[in-house]
Amino acid sequence: MSDQHLGSTLDDFLHEEGLYNAAKMEAATRVISWQIAEEMRKKGITKQEMANLMHTSRTQVDRIVKARGNVTIETLQRAAAIIGRELRLELV
Fold it and tell me: What SS3 state is found at 33?
């Protein structure tokens, strides 16, 4: 039994399958969304309150905290600012 991926890393596999960048972006978005949701919880901010503060809908806040749909960097920055945090992006 020969498996070309046996012993390779997840990163190697994702690169070989052409999925690395998409997986990395998805992971980063989920972490940021989780952090926003956690800060909201700590500060006692409901989704409806967050929506009001962001001048958007509760549905949009659901997309942010559940990492669903195409949430823009601008939207994440606005959400971060409301909860007293800063979103940082950098090229490395």
Answer: helix
- Per residue in 22-77, pLDDT (tens digit) is 898 888 889 999 999 999 999 999 999 999 999 999 999 999 999 887 888 899 99
What is the token pair recorded at 23?
């997986």
Tell me the two tokens of residue 37. Answer: 């949701």
In contact, 79 and 29? CB cutoff 8 Å: no
Q: CB-based contacts of 69: which residues, under 8 Å, 6+ apart?
A: 63
Please state at what angle helix 20-43 crosses helix 73-82, rounded to 10 degrees. Answer: 20
73 vs 87: CA distance, rounded Å: 9
Non-local CB neighbours of 59 within 8 Å, separated by 6+ positions: none
**Which of helix, strand or coil describes residue 84?**
coil
Q: The whole model's pTM is what?
A: 0.80
Residues near 63 by Cβ (< 8 Å), separated by ≥ 6? 69, 71
